[in-house]
Amino acid sequence: MIPIYDTAPRARTPVVVYGMILANVAIFIWMVGLSGPETGWVLMHFALIPLRYSDPEAALAVGLDPTSYWPLLTSTFLHGGWLHLGLNMWSLWIFGPAMEAHCGRLGFILLYAAGAVAASFAHLVANWTSPVPALGASGAIAAVVAAYAVTYPRAKVMLLVPILFLPLFVPVSALFFAAFWFVLQILQGTQELFAGSMGAGVAWWAHIGGFLLGIFFAKVADALGLGRGIETRRWSGSVPRVPRR
Domain spanning 2-223: which superfamily? Predict the structure, then answer.
């Protein structure tokens, strides 16, 4: 299921979301032009490799600094392919502008960065001895989705659900969408733990960690009155209006 649009108030000019999408795309295009050894060097130093921290001696032996924690954040700006990049950036574009409007630009940056670090930490705990590099913005975006659902639980999200070759459009509440998505991550993450390996190359526990951070952040942001005041607009596209429930 792919979110197509939502009905929550959005920042009229979501400059932070624009900047993050541009940064992710630029870094990916730069990496596409690298040679194999150069790509390997980038992954070694900026992707998240749990073995770097679980076995410092082994890490030093292959040139990794076990005292560097930058990969907890930098891994968020690396992607493994066009589809990986496209799905993450699309989700950021759907849910990011509303949270940038709600939290303010600085608040949204804090949400995104904190979500990235929390997601990386959860992945480390669940895959402590793994030598496989983990990368992608999905953990940080999970924090944005969770914060969105807490902030705008009754907002409508239009989902595209492919049924064979037929597109099915289903309107659901933001709370339902986030809860359903989170349950799927829990199920897949639990299966991964019992399987003893990272199923299908997806960092499920990173998604879970980012999501939980997003809930916490939204509650704290509301308590502190973080942000507010950014000019917003509601959806005004030509797609069919979402029926009320």
Answer: Rhomboid-like (1.20.1540.10)
